[in-house]
Hints:
- The protein is of the alpha+beta class.
- The protein has a single domain (12-98), classed as Arc Repressor Mutant, subunit A (Orthogonal Bundle).
- It is built from 5 helices and 3 strands.
- A 3-stranded antiparallel sheet has the order 1-3-2.
Amino acid sequence: MAINKKSEFQDSIQRFASFAKLLSHPARISILEVLASRQTCVCGEIVEVLPLAQSTVSQHLKELKEGGLVKGTVEGTSSCYCINWENFNQMSEEFITCIRSIGEFQKENGGCC
Length: 113
């Protein structure tokens, strides 16, 4: 059985990878764009503008919510979602910082190929 060595990496690298994974599907990026443009949104409205089934949108919203990028409430049969801007901004800043630190090696080493 394989051992998960994720915990062996720095917290900042783990957060970078988690954020990248959340953004790794075009549907999730599109959902974030819809939520950002409308401030808040009922799940049904998202389904109307994306070429995806209700169940698929719900699954992606679940991923975004579990990852902390989206907040949501359930009222009866409707769900209302919005971007968790505090988490989004923090994750974005850490993501950009990590990308820039990787890019610094190119300046130092010039690359190998």
